[in-house]
């Protein structure tokens, strides 16, 4: 019998955010990259963030060690191994190609490296997986459009697109053309919205980008009409509680509106976002919220089922996971 309380699906996970300090040093040695840190302890001492941007600065800097398809495949396999141990049975993974092509890494190297590892995820690690390409909203939309055009021409094995990076000042409306092109090619659409940005950005993601899931979305609670819309249309929110604490979206985990979101009937899923930076993988995240909120077995079952409901999988796979 499938266990209903297991954290079985992960839908908001940046593969670059699984780059652990140990692997940063290993890849730096392999690729002869000089790191601006004395040692692992020195690097770890910098994992104190004041907001999203303070995290993004370190997150993008550390990507310098990712250079070859092999590096991306090793990174992805390390995540899959850890996710499998966490009980994850299906993962939809974000990759930010622009953060790599800007450094001279080819689009093929990063996409094929990650996709190659994902292809074997079921056989090697016992979980199904899929790739979602995320575009950097603080870079020009024309660059995102160019990247998507290349991915389509390459027939890249992706199921959808998303939008991430610095949110405030970079509204979804800027990316309408990109998302129109993705939908015309049958790709699923998601977007980070309402993490640091206002409810208006969530509305734009829904109405202009026609996303079928909202990543984070916790500031939606500030707009009762938006909450009603999300509930009535059963739009999943991929919530990342440990991320919200570490990026100071909320002060402490106890202050997180997770229970209010569940009580309002929102389709909340639980995710780890950038686990190497935010203090835990999906099992750690579930353990922390269970402890902090005294979640009942029934509430945990709802969260696990929501993940399965929100996944971009076919009905047969959904039935297997439920
Ligand atoms: N928000 C926006 N962009 C990101 C995040 C996030 O939480 N993680 C990695 N890129
Ligand atoms: Zn994210």
Automatic annotation (TrEMBL):
Annotated Gene Ontology cellular components are: cytosol
Listed EC numbers: 3.5.4.2
Co-factor requirement: Zn(2+)
Positions with a binding annotation for Zn(2+): 12, 14, 192, 273
- Gene Ontology annotations of biological process type: adenine catabolic process; hypoxanthine salvage; nucleotide metabolic process
**UniProt remark on cofactor binding:** Binds 1 zinc ion per subunit.
- Site (Important for catalytic activity) found at 216
Q: In what residue span(s) does the Adenosine deaminase domain sit? A: 7-322
Q: Which UniProt keywords apply?
A: Hydrolase, Metal-binding, Nucleotide metabolism, Zinc
Q: What class of enzyme is it?
A: hydrolase
The protein's annotated catalytic reaction(s) are: adenine + H2O + H(+) = hypoxanthine + NH4(+)
InterPro entries, alphabetically?
A_deaminase_dom (IPR001365), ADE (IPR028892), Ado/ade_deaminase (IPR006330), Metal_Hydrolase (IPR032466)
- Positions with a binding annotation for substrate: 274
Q: Which GO terms describe its molecular function?
A: adenine deaminase activity; zinc ion binding
- The active site lies at 195
Question: What's its job?
Answer: Catalyzes the hydrolytic deamination of adenine to hypoxanthine. Plays an important role in the purine salvage pathway and in nitrogen catabolism.
Query: What family is this?
Result: Belongs to the metallo-dependent hydrolases superfamily. Adenosine and AMP deaminases family. Adenine deaminase type 2 subfamily.
Protein name in the entry: Adenine deaminase
- Which taxonomic lineage is given here? Bacteria, Bacillati, Actinomycetota, Actinomycetes, Micrococcales
């Amino acid at each position: 019998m499938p266990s209903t309380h297991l954290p079985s699906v992960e839908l908001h996970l940046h593969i670059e955010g699984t780059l652990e300090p140990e692997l940063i040093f290993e890849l730096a040695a392999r690729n002869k990259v000089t790191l601006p840190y004395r040692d692992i302890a020195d690097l770890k001492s910098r994992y104190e963030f004041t907001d999203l941007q303070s995290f993004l600065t370190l997150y993008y800097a550390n990507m310098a060690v990712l250079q070859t398809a092999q590096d991306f495949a090793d990174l992805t396999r390390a995540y899959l191994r850890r996710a499998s141990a966490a009980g994850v049975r299906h993962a939809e993974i974000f990759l930010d190609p622009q953060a790599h092509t800007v450094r001279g890494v080819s689009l093929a190297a990063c996409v094929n490296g990650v996709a190659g590892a994902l292809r074997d995820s079921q056989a090697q690690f016992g979980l199904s997986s899929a790739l979602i390409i995320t575009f950097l909203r603080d870079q020009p939309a024309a660059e995102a459009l160019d990247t998507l055009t290349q991915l389509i021409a390459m027939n890249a094995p992706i199921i959808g697109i998303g939008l991430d990076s610095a949110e405030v000042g970079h509204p979804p409306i800027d990316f309408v053309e990109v998302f129109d092109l993705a939908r015309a090619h049958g790709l699923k659409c998601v977007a980070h919205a309402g993490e640091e940005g206002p409810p208006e950005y969530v509305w734009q993601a829904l109405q202009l980008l026609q996303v079928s899931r909202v990543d984070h979305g916790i500031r939606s609670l500030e707009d009762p009409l938006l909450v009603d819309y999300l509930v009535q249309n059963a739009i999943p929110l991929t919530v990342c509680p440990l991320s919200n604490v570490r990026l100071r979206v909320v002060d402490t985990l106890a202050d997180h509106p997770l229970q209010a979101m569940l009580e309002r009937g929102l389709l909340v899923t639980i995710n780890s976002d950038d686990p190497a930076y935010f203090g835990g993988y999906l099992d750690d995240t579930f353990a922390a919220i269970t402890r902090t909120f005294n979640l009942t077995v029934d509430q945990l079952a709802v969260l696990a089922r929501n993940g399965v409901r929100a996944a971009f999988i076919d009905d047969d796979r959904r039935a297997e996971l439920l």
